[in-house]
Amino acid sequence: MSEKIKILGAAGVPKEMVERLEWEIGPVELLSSDGEEEIIKAIQDKQVFIVRSKPKVTARIIQNAPQLKVVARSGVGTDNIDRKACEERGIKVINTPEASASSVAELTIGLSITLLRHLYPACHSLKEGKWLKGEYTGRTIEGKTWGVIGFGSIGRRVTDIAKALRAEVLAYDPYVPDEEFTKRGVKRILRLEELLERSDIVSIHVNLSQETEGMISEETLHKMKKGAYLINTSRGKIINQKALEKALEEGYLGGAALDVYEVEPPTDQELLCLPNLICTPHIGGSTEEAFLNATEVLIRKLKEIFQIGEGAPLGY
Ligand code: NAD
User: Fold this and answer.
1) C-beta of residue 13 within 8 angstroms of C-beta of residue 50
2) What DSSP element (H or E) covers 29?
3) pTM given for the model
């Protein structure tokens, strides 16, 4: 029988994932917090560390993990992992971007309809006993120009749904070949400013990098059409939150929807309480289907790395 592969799981790794990992790969020890000291203590004999958007996998953790072979992020962004430190020690970093793309895309579309149809205040006022039928005249997505920033897995799915809702879709992504835009019948825009100037609804789907951090600033926000809507389900630091708050307060933007924040949980109550902002607590990838998919993808990738075949389950 193969030697057991010991796994450390971040706090909050779902029970179903732990059960499948234990059956298919090896025993899992779950952390009770995101504290660096607790992680270093527990990681000593582990070959795999499964994380979500937390905890921060620092260089210090990596340097104090003598057996570690893989850091596996259940989810997309690996910005909480010190990839350079992993590379230096030959530790593989894997993630599951394919697992949650539909969930994030559907939330993005849901947020856009919630914004354009004033669903949040309409529901809230009715629950308070007010029948304000005349106050909530909304807008349709049909006939609008939808600007997609970042034409990766999520950006492409958002495109497909927005097109089904009869929006004209423009997309900006300098790293994707022309044929991907053509295949989906999308107009490729070569300058971010042009996409912002032309779109009624803008949704952001780029990964966080030095290049994309602060990409939506006071200056770029004012390139958007007056009264346009902005949706961010990617990473909080891509938007300068103070600049967004100002643009919403001044009524320059029609509204905005955020699932992600510069600091999470967010501390900027003034922004969160603005009537033209709707917000969700980073739940883009939080669906039962995405968790299930992530488990399958992680197990497949770990089996490839450790060359585990289809035989008897390990360690049992
Ligand atoms: P992806 O890697 O498939 O796509 C990202 C795209 O951004 C790529 O095509 C890349 O070329 C493009 N890009 C990079 N720099 C750019 C730039 N300067 N300008 C324009 N485009 C640029 O990633 P994905 O799976 O589509 O995920 C997109 C984002 O969604 C990531 O930030 C991810 O962390 C986030 N996400 C959020 C949640 C959530 O719960 N809200 C869940 C999953 C993913």
Assistant:
1) yes
2) strand 28-30
3) 0.88
Which tokens is 121 given? 């205040």
Closest CA to 202 of 242, 238, 251: 238
Which secondary structure element, helix H or strand E, spans residue 204, and what is its range?
strand 201-204
Ligand 1 geometric centre to CA of 217 (Å):
18
Q: Which atom of ligand 1 is found nearest the CA of 172?
A: 20
Task: Give me the architecture of the 7-97+288-306 domain, per CATH.
Answer: 3-Layer(aba) Sandwich (3.40)
The H or E element that residue 104 is part of is helix 97-116
SS3 assignment, position 41: helix
CATH 3.40.50.720 region(s) of the chain?
Answer: 7-97+288-306, 101-279
Q: 227-273 pLDDT, tens per residue?
A: 999 999 999 999 999 999 999 999 999 999 999 999 999 999 999 99
The answer to whether residue 264 is catalytic is yes
Instruction: Look at residue 63 and tell me whether its pLDDT is greater than 90.
Output: yes
CATH architecture for segment(s) 101-279: 3-Layer(aba) Sandwich (3.40)
Q: Which of 218, 264, 289, 304 does the annotation list as catalytic?
A: 264
Give me the DSSP letters along 151-164.
Answer: -SHHHHHHHHHHHH
Query: Which residue's alpha carbon is at the smallest distance from atom 8 of ligand 1?
Result: 152
Mean pLDDT of the residues in the chain = 95
